[in-house]
Amino acid sequence: MEYLIKSANAATQIAPSSGPSAELFSAGENGSTAVLAPSLALRAQAGSRSAPDEGAAQAPAFVIVGEAVDDVIAREILLDRAMGPNRRKKSSEKLRRGRRPSEGLAFVARDPSGAVVGTVRLWDVRLGEGGPALLLGPLAVEPGLKSGGIGSALMRHAVAEAARLGHGAVLLVGDAPYYGRFGFSADLTGTLAMPGPYERHRLLALELKDGALDGAKGTIKAAGRKIKGQAQGFVA
User: What is the mean pLDDT of each run of 10 residues along the chain (236 residues)?
Assistant: First the structure.
């Protein structure tokens, strides 16, 4: 199956990626193709002027698919270009290191050539001594394409899929003016803390189920399944 994704002046067919790695993900471990339903294939169009990563006069075509094992190296290179080498020193990394992304919640955006131009993952965490939640990040887009709406599309799709899979809440560390338009705020994170240095006002959350963060307090802990061997180098 191929998805037809249209830009402002062209139509391009983009083949879906191969299935995800059994070591990194449990979804698709049988080798099945990890792609979205055709109805969820996204068009990159010029978006709202208020959105930092939207509003390009002529947005590129892209499609969002489930991350595959063949995407891992390209994703790491993209993250280095977009975020720099210091990304591995962030507090969020302590919750991701040596863990698998949450099942079915790792996505990439591809351009018409099939190249990875955007990435987002969500990770299983535990809220102190309380219940489970997801930690979103990193969200990154190819630096030259930041005005194409790719980041917004990745965010909306990631949140929608997390809700569809039954998760109760998503947390992230980021800028409230940007993530606030997706429903994230610091209003529900005042009694939570990251396991390392961070700016409290940048710890944001979104409830996917009413009351999911009621009573949540303490330091956020990693809860995702551990990985082994060389794959540990590709889960940042």
Answer: 32 32 30 31 32 48 95 91 79 90 97 96 93 96 91 98 98 96 96 93 97 94 84 48
SS (H, E, C) the chain: CCEEEECCCCEEEECCCCCCCCCCCCCCCCCCCCCCCHHHCCCCCCCCCCCCCCCCCCCCCCEEEECCHHHHHHHHHHHHHHHCHHHHHCHHHHHHCCECCCCCCEEEEECCCCCEEEEEEEEEEEEECCCEEEEECCCEECHHHCCCCHHHHHHHHHHHHHHHCCCCEEEEECCHHHHHHHCCECCCCCCEECCCCCCHHHEEEEECCCCCCCCCEEEEEECCCECCHHHHHHCC
CATH 2.70.70.10 fits domain 3-222: no
How remote is the C-alpha of 149 from its chain's centroid?
14
Distance from C-alpha of 142 to C-alpha of 139, rounded to nearest angstrom:
11
For tokens 């975020």, the residue is: 83
- CA 60 to CA 179: how far, in whole Å? 22
Q: CA angle, 140 as apex, 137 and 142 as ends, to 5°?
A: 165
Domain boundaries, the chain: 3-222
Per-residue pLDDT, 92: 86
Chain segment 115-171, per-residue pLDDT in tens: 999 999 999 999 987 899 999 999 999 999 988 899 999 999 999 999 999 999 999
